[in-house]
Amino acid sequence: MTLAAQAAEPVHAAAPAASLVQSVDWLAVAPPVVAAVAALLVLVADLFVREGRKHLLGLGAVAGLVVSLAALLPLRGATRKTFCLVTDTTVCSYTVDRFALVVQALVLAGALVAALLSLTLTKDDEDLPAGEYWFLLLSSAAGAALLPAARDLATLVVALEVASLPAFALVGLRRGDRRSSEAALKFFLSSVTATAVLLLGVSFVYAATGSLHLTEIATRLDNVPAQLDTLAQAGVALTLVGFAFKTAAAPFHFWVPDTYVGAPLPVAAYLSVTGKAVGFSGLVLVTVVAFPSYADVWGPALAVLAALTMTVGNVAALRQSAARARGAVRLLAWSSVGQAGYLLVPIAAAAYTSDVQIGSTVAYALMYAVVNLGAFAVAALVSRTRPGGRLTDYRGLYARSPLAALALAFFLLCLAGLPPGIIGLVAKVTVFASAVDAGLAWLAVVMAVNVVIALAYYLRWTALLFRPAPPEAPEKASAPEEASTPEKASAPQEARARRALPAPLGTAIVLTLVAAVTLSGAPQLILDVLTGSLFQ
């Protein structure tokens, strides 16, 4: 039942604004709403929970994300629409179709793994306020879950900012850490610039079409008056630039390395997967759903961006020094830029064929999310005993922790697209095929060259895991009087505690490893998203 049906009859009959009254399907909006409610509950509970029991807030956040994921189950099957215009129920602001459902599952699962990694972080790091941390993470996850179902530009921008604004604070939340503050500032300034450009593009599109709904824009762009055609083209171009910032496409990628390095590891993992999925979801919606009439504008532009992004990311990752502090995270950051280039290829291909090509982007995003979160989880484990985060710290990891080394090796091989990481190979083949099918042979060649470049740094890191560890200098014997002090006596206990594998961290590694192995054994689970259009 619509809200208009509950209003007084004279008002409904006489008010011309009745077309703005919208229906509400609470089951359809449940996933982002549950995450948002969980965020508010955690924030309120933080006022009453004693300092020694703050870990309960993290457990509550994890439970909220699990319930949000469970809320997706009843949505399988038919497309559901809500917040529709009374005068035209086919024009809606929120639609749960196959595309929205898959991306919502991706972002919420990514947030859940990041939350598992954060349980240990918030417990060990006293500089992180637990209540604020969990509130910001859940708020960002709620915005991320809202965005793929948004079907008007206003909802799209609001969802993008709800997902982005808490992420700024998450990056700079660690008190007294200058590197964290600098990363948050750079992330904030770049994102504000992107938002300004995006809003300018949206305003131009609205001026040219008179509508904010994506399907209405698509219809009206077919018949834009000649005097407004330049305005419409400028709006399309500026909107693409705004989302290019969000997706870290070159040359709008400069914020990524420093942001990932300065952020806490779970936050960097969250940004690399959920943040990227948000940007690509918005880009897919505005290009394929709203701007199909201007495919001759955004198709070639995205193809060039894809080639530039994958090349810049992979070449920069190849040049990373193994002895540089936080080099492992920096390499993963540049790797994520390179992977963004692969994700752009099917979107560009859709301009030359059909929206069926978008399935390749979604399939690749699912593979990337699983293995990249796994790599960050192992990096979080290694950082407990070697906080420097250098690539050389991973030398001899197999001797110290065989299971962690094997898991990281498998994740890296998936990213490289080498057996036994079959799912990585399958995902790359689907992206490559989308470029060939669209007649973008030059882009397929550029992708093939970049895959070879990426092999070098992925295999170099993998080889380090199994090389003998360098001999360590023997520790100086402590004087008897020093060993008798409480501080010195507790040091070995603290070292043993840091070497122990926390249950949440172990759970995150196991979940991502099981998912990656399962997908490699049965890639059809992901390939199913390639069949037919996702927007139905």
Automatic annotation (TrEMBL):
Its record classes its membrane topology as: Multi-pass membrane protein
EC number(s) stated in the UniProt entry for this protein: 7.1.1.-
What sequence ranges are listed for the domain NADH:quinone oxidoreductase/Mrp antiporter transmembrane? Answer: 150-453
Describe the reaction catalysed, as an equation.
Answer: a quinone + NADH + 5 H(+)(in) = a quinol + NAD(+) + 4 H(+)(out)
- Annotated membrane-spanning segments are 29-49, 56-79, 99-121, 133-150, 156-173, 185-206, 231-255, 267-291, 297-319, 331-352, 358-382, 403-427, 439-459, 505-526
- Keyword tRNA-binding tagged: no
Give the EC class as a word. Answer: translocase
* Location(s), subcellular: Cell membrane; Endomembrane system; Membrane
On whether Transcription regulation is a keyword of this UniProt record, the answer is: no
Give a single Pfam family match. Answer: Proton_antipo_M
Q: Which domain of life is it from?
A: Bacteria
Task: Keywords in alphabetical order, please.
Answer: Cell membrane, Membrane, NAD, Quinone, Translocase, Transmembrane, Transmembrane helix, Transport
Subunit notes for this chain? Answer: NDH-1 is composed of 14 different subunits. Subunits NuoA, H, J, K, L, M, N constitute the membrane sector of the complex.
Instruction: Tell me which family the UniProt entry assigns to this protein.
Output: Belongs to the complex I subunit 2 family.
Q: What does this protein do?
A: NDH-1 shuttles electrons from NADH, via FMN and iron-sulfur (Fe-S) centers, to quinones in the respiratory chain. The immediate electron acceptor for the enzyme in this species is believed to be a menaquinone. Couples the redox reaction to proton translocation (for every two electrons transferred, four hydrogen ions are translocated across the cytoplasmic membrane), and thus conserves the redox energy in a proton gradient.
Protein name per UniProt: NADH-quinone oxidoreductase subunit N
The primary gene name is nuoN
